[in-house]
Amino acid sequence: MECGEMLDLSLNEVEGCAMKAARGAGLSWGQAEDLGRAARWLAREGCDWAGELLLIIESPELRDPERCGPLAGQTLADRLPVLAAGDGILRTGPLSFPHWILPPVALAASASGQRMHGTLGEIAFTCGAGLPPAYSASLAGVGGAPRPVWLGVGAAQTPLTYAGAALSRSAVSAQTLALLEHYAYRTYVPNSEKSRLRGAGAPGRP
After folding, report:
1. Has residue 139 got a pLDDT over 90?
2. Closest CA to 106 of 139, 82, 76, 62
């Protein structure tokens, strides 16, 4: 997607924009909130969250939790207690945008006091309670190509030292942001005839 003019967003703006766009695209509020948190996480890691999210919400075939990384991540996060109680290993088939599983899994692991490690295709990661996220390579280059995911309970045996970008803001192309906001507008309540007649900022009436 062409860059053009770039806009600078705070992480709060990233989360809000992503959540509203996902909801406007027809996902449930719960899914949309999870995608908002995931977008915030990935923006901090220097990933192209906006361009990737646009592809995700515009492709109906990518909403399948058996194939779509963002939705698979939400399912995997819910399964962490079962995973920890079993053999502690989970493998998936190829998932598009596989790095989008990390935010919900890492947040769920931290909340339950667990540590997780695994691979997103060729990239290894570790995350969870008491561990800053670490990788064997930057997440920014993962992209949307389907890759299998392997997930295990516990810290990685081989320490990973790549700590990611840890950005506090995200540069987004104005064109991509406008397309996401097009979806976000669908979440807004249309003006009623009464509100249009009163106009913005009109004094209230008893």
Report:
1. no
2. 76
